[in-house]
Amino acid sequence: MSIFHLALIAVIQGLTEFLPVSSSGHLILLPLLTNLPDQGLALDVAVHVGTLLAVILYFRRDVGLAISGVPALLRGNFELPGARLAGLLSIATVPVVIIGFVLSALDMTDALRSIKVIGWAMLGFGIVLYWADQKGANAKTSSDWSFRDAVVLGLWQAVALIPGTSRSGITITGARALGYAREDAARISMLMSIPTIAASGVLLGLDIAKQGAPGQFQDAAIAAVLAFGAALLALTLMMRLLRSVSFTPYVIYRIGLGVLLLWIAYA
């Protein structure tokens, strides 16, 4: 695969993974709207690894806290901050793993990878994000994250299995609807992405093992590094901008792209 194609895939994945605009939707659209071939599972795993490392690096203190709390969590002690955070992340990950496994087992994932589905999801959930962002209170911070809210946000996250929805977008929408401040909603969403992206990478890796796909280590390594850099840049910029800017610019982008895709699909 050419360096240009690798860079395009990595940058699209890296820039859109943590922005509320749907990375999977953009990656699916790439071969549909161009003459470029589908990147395949191996590169999907590579760019997921790159973005995973980026969010772990950015939130390294929270990640370290959650890891340190795992032993206490396994003993049933939820009082320690690290154990509580690890428990909340685990609970929030369960719905998307279960529903994702069911969709995969029923071979329904390919049926959702169409321009119409992506266009409607991009448009519809963009409007929902705008509503939640404008109407949501700023009463809660990430320290107020409860087990009930973890379940609710886990269900919101499962909706992102529909291409075009955006995992970060739908979880931020849910957090804003629950009353979390913008920056705290994004923080929770990003932390939730870590076990989710890791689980997705494992599932993709298992698919590669089943299919016996040949290794493309050089291409995978290049894609992972580029995705890491793009994701870290996008994440840093978004978290800084949220101190003074709403999610409206992302909503405008989603609505514009959604309308364009629906025009293409139905024209």
User: Based on DSSP secondary structure assignment, what is the total number of beta strands?
Assistant: 0
Low-confidence stretches: none
In round numbers, the mean pLDDT is 87
Please write the string of helix (H) and strand (E) elements.
Answer: HHHHHHHHHHH
Q: What's the N-to-C terminus distance?
A: 32 Å
Query: Helix- and strand-based class?
Result: mainly alpha
**Based on the structure, what is the oligomeric state of the protein chains?**
single chain
Main sheet summary: none
- Shape, per Cα inertia axes: globular
How would you describe this protein?
With 267 residues, this protein is mainly alpha-helical. It has one domain (3-266). It contains 11 helices and no strands. It has helices spanning 3-17, 23-33, 40-58, 60-74, 81-105, 115-135, 147-159, 167-177, 182-211, 217-241, 248-266. It is globular and about 55 Å long.
